[in-house]
């Protein structure tokens, strides 16, 4: 069911989804709000209680969406992406003193990369092919660093912050994420 919510003067597009779970939750996909709730739940009250969160996040999502429209996406072939990745993997391996055993490129729905430190395997999102080199390099470095430090703890961030301004990089990655989502729909 699709509708529009009026939140503090904003019109927020909204989709209602039924769930078997007992807990209600809200999430944004793009600038659309998904209200996920079981049968008989007091959805109206839930929305009312969370309207500050909805308002704030809607504006944020909208901002990213607008920024995404301004981007020029890179056009790399899959082969070029794997070459670019290989280059940055070699560089990061040298810097960090770790080497992944397995590297896979695949389509992922929620992240740019992932790492399994135990099996020493890393996955990279095939959609990285639309990103500029500097962002691909960050994703590679981030995932390879997980081979050394599996979680996002202080040590992990200290090493990463020495090389990158994470706030800026992550915001750029988010904008590209938005661009690619609209691209794929
Ligand atoms: Zn990570």
TrEMBL record:
Signal peptide: none annotated. InterPro entries: UTP_pyrophosphatase-like, YgjP-like_metallopeptidase. Pfam families: YgjP-like. Residues 64-162 form the YgjP-like metallopeptidase domain. Coiled coil: none annotated. This is YgjP-like metallopeptidase domain-containing protein. It comes from Candidatus Marsarchaeota G1 archaeon BE_D.
């Amino acid at each position: 069911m699709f509708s529009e919510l009026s939140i503090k003067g904003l019109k927020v597009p909204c989709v209602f989804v039924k769930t078997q779970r007992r807990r209600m939750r809200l999430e944004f996909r793009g600038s659309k709000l998904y209200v996920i709730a079981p049968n008989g739940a007091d959805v109206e009250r839930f929305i009312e209680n969370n309207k500050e969160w909805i308002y704030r996040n809607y504006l944020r999502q909208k901002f990213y969406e607008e920024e995404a429209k301004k981007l020029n996406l890179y056009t790399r072939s899959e082969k070029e992406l794997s070459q670019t990745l290989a280059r940055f993997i070699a560089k990061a391996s040298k810097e960090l003193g770790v080497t992944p055993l397995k590297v896979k490129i695949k389509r992922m729905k929620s992240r740019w990369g992932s790492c399994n430190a135990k099996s020493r395997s890393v996955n990279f999102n095939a959609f990285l092919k639309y990103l500029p080199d500097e962002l691909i390099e960050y994703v590679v470095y981030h995932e390879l660093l997980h081979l050394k430090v599996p979680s996002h703890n202080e040590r992990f961030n200290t090493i990463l912050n020495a090389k990158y301004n994470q706030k800026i990089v992550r915001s750029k990655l988010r904008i590209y994420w938005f661009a690619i989502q609209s691209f794929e729909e």
